[in-house]
Amino acid sequence: MEVASEGSTSICSHCDRAIPSSNIDLHHAHCSRNLKKCKICGNMVPKKHAEEHFLNTHAPVCWSTASGRF
Ligand SMILES: [Zn+2]
Ligand SMILES: [Zn+2]
């Protein structure tokens, strides 16, 4: 259940989340600098972990090393 909190929210154009309007500038600066939208699954992923996310989530099976499977 969502309760309308005091103040309004704005949708961050980078991550499409509702952010308190008082925070949107700060959030957007942080968001666009640190987060990246995964082109494959559309999730927001920290830029630092984008590669890790890709490898863990979208890497082709043949990339897995020494898993012993198959
Ligand atoms: Zn954002
Ligand atoms: Zn992804």
Automatic annotation (TrEMBL):
<dbReference type="InterPro" id="IPR013083">
    <property type="entry name" value="Znf_RING/FYVE/PHD"/>
</dbReference>
<dbReference type="GO" id="GO:0005739">
    <property type="term" value="C:mitochondrion"/>
</dbReference>
<protein>
    <submittedName>
        <fullName>Uncharacterized protein</fullName>
    </submittedName>
</protein>
<dbReference type="InterPro" id="IPR051986">
    <property type="entry name" value="Innate_Immune_Apopt_Reg"/>
</dbReference>
